[in-house]
Amino acid sequence: MSAPAVPASRSRTPQLLGLSLAYFMVLLDTTVLAVAERSIMTSLHTGVVGVGWATTIYTMALAAALVLGGSLADRLGGHRVFVVGVAGFGAASLACACSPDLAALLVFRALLGLFAAAIIPSSLAVIAHLYPQPRSRGRAISAWAAISGAAMAAGPVLGGWLIGLSGWRAVFVLNAPLALVVLVLCRSRVATARRDRAISWLPHLGLAATLATATLAITRAGQRSWPQTVLFGLIALALAYGTALVDRAAAAPLIPGPLRRNRPVWTAFGWAAAVNYALTTVIFSIPLLLSASPTRTGIVLLPMTLLVAVNPLLTGRLAAGYGPVVPIRLGFAAFPVGLCLAAAAVTGDHAVLLGVGLLLCGLGVSWTLPALVGYAVENAGPDAAGAVGGILNATRQIGATVAAASAAAILTPRTPAVPFLIAAAVCLLGLASAMARNRTRARQRAPEAPAERGSR
To answer: What is the 3-state secondary structure (H, E, C) of the chain?
Structure first.
């Protein structure tokens, strides 16, 4: 069978715009909900733990299904999986908007996460086909990331405006017309490659069960229900161990064999989880602590969200000139300082201090995330880039899930600073790891110098 023809550049532009808008929609659903927390609590008669579950169940489903979404895109074709994901995301968003109670909202939020997990890897598969040349593909992926990254800046402000007009349900209604626009832009079928790739369902189900049980354990700990905390914690550990055993024997494992002992790649996965833990702590906690309207809350978050949207372009230049570890170290140095300033600000009315803290948090995210993606791909090799991308996004969502569950369990009027201080400690561990990684590389290069001098 001959390879399908590459679309002309004019026909590729609407497709790329649609693919970027789809990812924008997925990220927007994460950030826009932050300013809707108080409105949801009032409307559905729930507390911090309930609205915490509304956040975590989305990231939990997304984390558990991202690798599966990539496998389905390989097996069924990227364009087909993408279209189903977008249509399902729009429909599930309308269902969220019509939810009569918290239980229904949680069910439909979980569906949103599953459809989002189909959108992200399949959109990358379609881009790879539309732009087969490495240089043009790199520019296309940069545009995809830049357009979608604007969701971080737009989400809180747009969400605040919509809630002011029509309440929290409007933030979900917004996704339906966005999904229709995406489907129109991507209506031309793209014949992406299909591989006869097996899918092992048990590891995916085990991962989902592990995340759900671990989240329950964290929630029960926040409610001081220690027997249930211990019980769910032990079950989560057992599920994690069982999932790892099943995955090793699976025909299509979650983690490919070559990556299992690749320490640099696993280090990058840990960094990704740490960054999203800190980011989600800020996005989840600040709206609950501010006595402000949703619109003002969105504006308060702008120092962080704008940098997250804009600064990655500069981070790419920094990583190209000095290597990816340098911006990673800078990010992990800026993040804990920003989190500590935010912790000090939320204990009193210190708007300027909070703004500076959020600015540093924005630098922390925008320096680390783009660089650690490059670091992971560089150390994995091109053949494993797809698997690394899926697992990296999954670990990011795991970090976000744990952060939202922890903040919902810990955050009280008496302990407003504690979630930020815990996140700062997590980032300091990331900084220590980045520093140790540089020393390890230096030791590995040191023995080579005498040999080179002797050969000369």
So the answer is: CCCCCCCCHHHHHHHHHHHHHHHHHHHHHHHHHHHHHHHHHHHCCCCHHHHHHHHHHHHHHHHHHHHHHHHHHHHHCHHHHHHHHHHHHHHHHHHHHCCCCHHHHHHHHHHHHHHHHHHHHHHHHHHHHHCCCHHHHHHHHHHHHHHHHHHHHHHHHHHHHHHHHHCCCHHHHCHHHHHHHHHHHCCCCCCCCCCCCCCCHHHHHHHHHHHHHHHHHHHHHHCCCHHHHHHHHHHHHHHHHHHHHHHHHCCCCCCCHHHHCCHHHHHHHHHHHHHHHHHHHHHHHHHHHCCCCHHHHHHHCHHHHHHHHHCHHHHHHHHHHHCCHHHHHHHHHHHHHHHHHHHHHHCCCCHHHHHHHHHHHHHHHHHHHHHHHHHHHHHHCHHHHHHHHHHHHHHHHHHHHHHHHHHHHHCCCCCCCHHHHHHHHHHHHHHHHHHHHHHHHHHHHCCHHHHHHHHC
**Report field, pTM of the whole predicted structure over 0.85:** no
The CATH topology of domain 261-442 is: Growth Hormone; Chain: A; (1.20.1250)
Domain 12-188 classification at class level? mainly alpha
User: Per-residue pLDDT for the chain (456 aa), expressed as one digit of tens each?
Assistant: 334 444 555 568 888 889 888 988 888 877 777 788 888 998 999 888 888 888 888 888 888 888 888 778 877 888 899 999 999 999 999 999 999 999 999 999 999 999 998 998 888 778 877 877 766 766 676 677 666 667 767 778 888 888 888 888 998 998 999 999 999 999 877 766 566 666 778 888 898 888 888 888 887 877 778 898 899 999 999 999 999 999 888 887 888 777 888 899 899 999 999 999 999 999 889 988 887 788 888 888 888 988 887 887 788 778 878 888 999 999 999 999 999 999 999 988 788 999 999 999 999 998 998 888 778 878 876 556 566 777 888 888 889 888 988 888 888 888 899 999 999 999 999 999 999 875 555 444 444 444 444 443
